[in-house]
Amino acid sequence: MKKAYISLLLVLVLFSCTKTNKKVDITIPKLTNNPSWDVVCTNRKPLLSFYISRGGIGKRTYIVNLDTEPEFNSPNFIEYKNIEELDKFIVQKRVEKPLVDKIRYYFRAKAIDSEGNESKWGYTRFSLDTDYNKNFMNLTRAKVQNVRVSTGENPKNLIDYDDPGQVSFWQAAPPGPIKPWAIFDLGKPTIISRIWMLANINRDNGWLVDFVWEKSLDGKNFEEIIDAKILNNDTFRNVIDITPVSARYLRLKINHFRGVAPHLNCVIFYTPGKPKVPTPPRGRYVLLVGDQMNGGTFTQLAPYIETLDLDLKTLTVPHYEISLDMLNSILII
Q1: Contacts by residues 219-228 (CB-CB < 8 Å, ≥ 24 positions apart)
Q2: DSSP 8-state class, residue 137
């Protein structure tokens, strides 16, 4: 009987240990809300928000870290603890003290349940620039007439500027003896001062790492644009401001990339100058700002407004052309 009691006690102890050591899973919080990867914040006390974790025991709270170094060990390190979930979807925290302006910040967060179990860290980063978009850029888009590429399918996706077109892409064939390139024909000599590039926003496969832009007037003799030589690129979006150059042809030479082949969704060229002020229709009208990448509206908003029994006409201005100066000029006309 004594042996039976000892055996039972041993089983209970083992069961208790097994139960205590059981792993508790808590998913990593998703830092894809605001600010998401490489977003530019213009408020020095931004509102941080991200998607909640799942799992754990009891109530979850969160720890948030901010720093100007990816190792989170600089004098600018900030930590917030015991942040509660706002609702069943997101967590949010307003930064309490002003952040350093014109610098990149690294942002991480993790969940902790009521038993002290922790998730792994979720990571993202953003830039802070209080002057970003404060003034009109004084640039207009240069129209591309044609695109040629070294290899790969659908080069026209590079100049497909509607919102669905930002998801489509050109991808070169897997690496061969020739380094990938793309040549853009503007149709005539044009002054270019900014190059805007978009790659895969969801993962870094195909991101360009080392690349350079070249200019040409005849499409045969190309010269490197010094301001447009990029080394060690680590993001999906590049805004390259250059000393204005005159070119009909612009060639992108790709020297190194992540993954098996370079992947590029969109390229836009800008020339110095202000957009032409549109002439508004006579009588009463509604001014619409086209918020799609190509300057249009997602819905057929203008035709809908004009079919209403309100005797209204419409004027649509692309978002990349609108400015306070333009609005004032339209009101004067």
Answers
A1: 219/183, 219/185, 219/248, 219/249, 222/249, 222/251, 228/195
A2: -
- CB of 321 closer than 8 Å to CB of 275: yes
The whole model's pTM is what?
0.82
Domains observed in the chain:
23-128 (2.60.40.10), 139-272 (2.60.120.260), 285-332 (no CATH)
Angle, alpha carbons 54-55-56 (nearest 5°):
130
Three-state DSSP class for 208?
A: strand
Q: What's CA 146's distance to the chain center, in Å?
A: 26
Q: What pLDDT does residue 268 have?
A: 97
DSSP for 218-285 reads: SSSS-EEEEEEEE-S--SSEEEEEEEEEEEEEEEEEEEEESSSS-EE-EEEEEEESPPPPPPPPSSSE
pLDDT (tens digit per residue) in 209-240: 999 999 999 999 999 999 999 999 999 999 99
Categorize the per-residue pLDDT at 22 as very low, low, confident or very high, splitting at 50, 70 and 90.
Answer: low
Among 61-70, 134-143, 146-155, the range of highest mean pLDDT: 61-70
Please give the Cα distance from 322 to 300 (Å, whole number). Answer: 20
CA angle 310, 311, 312 (to 5 degrees): 90
Cα gap 47→216, rounded to integer Å? 46
pLDDT band at 18, cuts 50/70/90? very low
Tokens of 133: 């978009």
Place of tokens 């998703």: 30
Average pLDDT, the chain: 90
* Spacing of C-alpha 137 from chain mean position: 19
